[in-house]
């Protein structure tokens, strides 16, 4: 049994059908990339995992627990962190305050000092800026802060939505290197990303979502070498 198992999920908004019989899985310590163009249904799938959108069919389990029966606020207690598109940093609060908010679960509060130190070791720039308000950080630094804040809750799974959005290529590389180091801590990562080359460069496996359907799945290199994928997403 994988850590996260999505089976035959179908969903939509009223009469508009968005997802059709979608199945995928993520295991501990594994980076799995979900790629697809705008409107493919990627964000809708994340909203379903996080209890923010209903489904019409299918199941989602996390370590054997039925996620569809849980409320959104229960996910943190289970060990699921979600880094939304746009990073979701608390712009008027300092870096340290943002990190502390990541440990809001009662069971994690006692570990705040230890986890703060770990976050600063993982991302030294954040320690230098711990008293700076988050809104004054660069886009790359805010993305690193969002990842560090997720780590404060000692997650078993991190869901990331478009972490490269709005970042310069060199900063994107730094962020993806950080994601790889996080996965080394045996944390499962579901990475939703339009940047195919970056997404597959750190993934072990991937899925391609088109018009609400999983049309391809396989090893990261296998997908990257697929002619139809390269033509659709890389233009080559």
Automatic annotation (TrEMBL):
Keyword Transit peptide: no
Gene3D superfamilies found in the cross-reference section: P-loop containing nucleotide triphosphate hydrolases
Record key words, sorted: Amino-acid transport, ATP-binding, Nucleotide-binding, Transport
GO MF annotation terms: ATP binding
Pfam families: ABC_tran (PF00005)
Keyword Transport recorded: yes
CDD domains: ABC_TM1139_LivF_branched
Start and end residues of each ABC transporter domain: 4-236
This protein's name: ABC transporter ATP-binding protein
Organism, scientific name: Enterocloster hominis (ex Hitch et al. 2024)
């Amino acid at each position: 049994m994988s850590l996260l198992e999505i089976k035959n999920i179908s969903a939509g908004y009223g009469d508009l059908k968005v997802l059709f019989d979608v199945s995928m899985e993520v295991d501990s310590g594994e980076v799995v990339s979900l790629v697809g163009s705008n409107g493919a249904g990627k964000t809708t799938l994340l909203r379903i995992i996080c209890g923010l959108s209903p489904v019409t069919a299918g199941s989602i389990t996390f370590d054997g627990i039925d996620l569809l029966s849980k409320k959104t606020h229960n996910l943190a207690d289970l060990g699921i962190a979600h880094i939304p598109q746009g990073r979701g940093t608390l712009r008027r609060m300092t870096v340290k305050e943002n990190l502390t908010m990541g440990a809001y679960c009662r069971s994690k509060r006692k570990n705040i000092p230890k986890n703060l130190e770990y976050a600063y070791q993982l991302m030294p720039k954040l320690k230098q800026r711990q008293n700076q308000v988050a809104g004054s950080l660069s886009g790359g630094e805010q993305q690193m802060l969002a990842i560090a804040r997720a780590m404060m809750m000692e997650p078993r799974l991190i869901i990331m939505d478009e972490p490269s959005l709005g970042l310069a290529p060199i900063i994107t590389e730094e962020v993806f290197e950080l994601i790889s180091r996080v996965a080394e801590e045996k944390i499962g990562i579901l990475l939703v990303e339009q940047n195919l080359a970056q997404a597959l460069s750190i993934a072990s496996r991937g899925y391609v979502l088109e018009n609400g359907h999983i049309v391809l799945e396989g090893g990261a290199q296998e997908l990257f070498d697929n002619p139809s994928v390269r033509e659709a997403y890389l233009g080559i």
